[in-house]
Amino acid sequence: MTEFYHCYRRFNDGLEGVLLALASVVVAVVVVLPFASFAVRALTGEGYSFLAETAPQLVPWMVFPVLGILLRRDSHITVDVLPHFLSGKRLRYLRILVLMICLLATLLMGIFGISTTSFYAKLGQLSTTEIEFPLWYLYMSYPIGFLLAANFCLESLIGEWCDQRVRVAGEQL
121 in a domain, yes or no? Predict the structure, then answer.
């Protein structure tokens, strides 16, 4: 089981790198678009609304796919009371319980996101922006992000279960 965990960990290391690179590209686009909108308006006297409208629409694609990375690194916001009073096996069992709850919650949110996104796809609504596209494209970040988070939770759970969980540098536990 530990060999499987280490292979799974290496796979998720690569996946994390790809997700962080894509999120960085989205951040760059979100930052550049308002400047481009200003520059176009200043130079030509005309404004293109899609330059201003696109940045907020990309924010979910920056946030949801990175949720799992925060869970994987234990970098999410927590209120940790019990870990201060527990140690050894009891602390490990608490972490396993928390990771099982996180895995269940992220799977349920991912499944709910898939059904919601398919509902919006069936409605066939289009955006009201200058460049029209199906609205469900915006909502796809939700199930994708939560299913990626479930993947990272599963990795952490397997590692904790085998007492082999690899900590990222600077990770607090």
Answer: yes
Tokens 């909108």 correspond to 37
Q: Is residue 38 part of a domain?
A: yes
Would you tell me the crossing angle of helices 49-63 and 141-161 to the nearest 10 degrees?
20
pLDDT in tens, 79-120: 677 766 777 788 888 889 989 999 999 999 999 999 999 999
CB atoms within 10 A of CB 116: 14
Residues 6+ apart with CB under 8 A from 160: 92, 95, 96, 99
In a domain, 170, yes or no: no
Q: What single string gives the DSSP state of each residue in the chain?
A: -HHHHHHHHHHHHHHHHHHHHHHHHHHHHHHHHHHHHHHHHHHHS---HHHHHHHHHHHHHHHGGGHHHHHHTT-S----SGGGT--HHHHHHHHHHHHHHHHHHHHHHHHHHHHHHHHHHHHT-B--SSS--BTHHHHTHHHHHHHHHHHHHHHHHHHHHTT-PPPPTT---
Judge whether 171 lies within some domain: no
What is the extent of the structural domain holding 102? 2-161
- Counting the structural domains of the chain, the total is 1
Torsion angles phi and psi, residue 159, rounded to 5: -65, -40
Structure pTM?
0.83
